[in-house]
Each structure stands twice: as structure tokens, then as C-alpha cells.
Specification:
Helix content is 58%, strand content 15%. By secondary structure, it is α+β, with helices and mostly antiparallel strands. It has a six-stranded mixed sheet. The N and C termini lie far apart (115 Å).
């Protein structure tokens, strides 16, 4: 169960709970079952938290009046909820907090969009660089093939010239020997 699922359970608890007042030093309101179970806790430090009871993820949404706004290891705390009275929670008060939770979700979705956009840009740049690398390797291979073919043709040309020179020398030597034989 992700953080969005926890927030949805929290929203259902607030809207379905009627007027719920928890008073005293601490209290709990629990709803749901299995991995979708959520719990609203209220303690003397006026912290309202909706906790995911799925032990595999451990995501927590905490709404607090302690002045912190943090998101760490699946936890989100909101500081705009200083209206909580000490030791009591009503449906009307919880309903007023819902807009703060919705705003936090909007901000979180904006961050997720920014991260997703950046990730797409990085992936696109990596694909582009891989394509360029492949094209450079293909061009290098073609150049090497052309150079090899050119050098092979040049070698054959020089070999033929050398053989022709050897044949011409042998013919010249042979003609000189024939002239000497005729003179004898």
C-alpha cells in the first residue's frame, strides 16, 4: 500500500466517521482491515497521524502541529494544522484538515512530475548518446574497411609492378646474352 492509498483511507475515515471526539491524554480510532488498515492517533502533543499498517511498506502520513514539513522514508508531516485542540478531534476539524492534505498531495504530485520529467530527459539523453556511439563505431568500421581495401589494392599494384620489373630485367638480361652469343 502506497502513500496515496493511506491518504485515501484517511479521507474515508474522516468522511465516514461522523462526529468523532477523542479526548484525554491519548486515543486511537482504527478503521479498515488487513493491509489497508489505517489508524488515527491523537496524543497530548496534538499530532494526528494516519499510519499504514502494512508492515512491508511502512508508509506513514503524519499531520502535525509541531511546525515541521518533512517527507522522509515514506513519511509526510504537515505543519499547517495548528488548529488541533489539545486531546480532541472532531469530524469538522478533520474535514478542515482535508484541504491541507489535498494541497500536500498536489505538491507531492508536482515533485513526482518534476522527477519523472527529469528522468525522461536523462533517459532520452542516454538513448541519444548510445545511438551516436553506435553510429561512430559503424563509421569507424566503414573507414577501416575502405582503408584496408585501398591498402590491399595498393599492395597488389606494387606487387604487379615489382613482378613486371623483374620480368623486364630478365628479358633485358636475356637480350644482352643473345647479342653476346651472336657476337661470338
Amino acid at each position: 500500500m502506497g502513500l496515496a492509498d493511506v491518504v485515501n483511507v484517511e479521507r474515508q475515515l474522516i468522511s465516514a466517521g461522523g462526529d468523532t471526539t477523542v479526548s484525554g491524554n491519548a486515543g486511537n480510532v482504527v478503521a479498515g482491515a488487513g493491509s489497508a488498515a489505517a489508524e488515527i492517533k491523537l496524543s497530548t502533543n496534538t499530532t494526528l497521524s494516519v499510519e499504514n499498517k502494512d508492515t512491508t511498506t511502512g508508509n506513514t502520513l503524519a499531520i502535525s502541529s509541531d511546525g515541521t514539513n518533512t517527507m522522509d522514508n515514506g513519511k509526510l508531516q504537515l505543519s499547517a494544522l495548528a488548529a488541533l485542540g489539545e486531546g480532541e478531534l472532531t469530524k469538522a476539524l478533520a474535514d478542515s484538515f482535508q484541504s491541507v492534505v489535498d494541497d500536500a498531495i498536489t505538491v507531492l504530485n508536482g515533485y513526482r512530475g518534476d522527477v519523472g520529467s527529469t528522468q525522461n530527459q536523462v533517459e532520452s539523453a542516454v538513448r541519444n548518446l548510445m545511438t551516436q556511439s553506435t553510429n561512430v563505431k559503424a563509421a569507424e568500421s566503414i573507414i577501416r574497411d575502405v582503408d584496408y581495401a585501398k591498402e590491399s589494392a595498393n599492395f597488389n599494384k606494387q606487387n604487379i609492378i615489382s613482378q613486371a620489373g623483374t620480368y623486364a630485367m630478365s628479358q633485358a638480361n636475356s637480350a644482352a646474352q643473345n647479342v653476346l652469343r651472336l657476337l661470338q
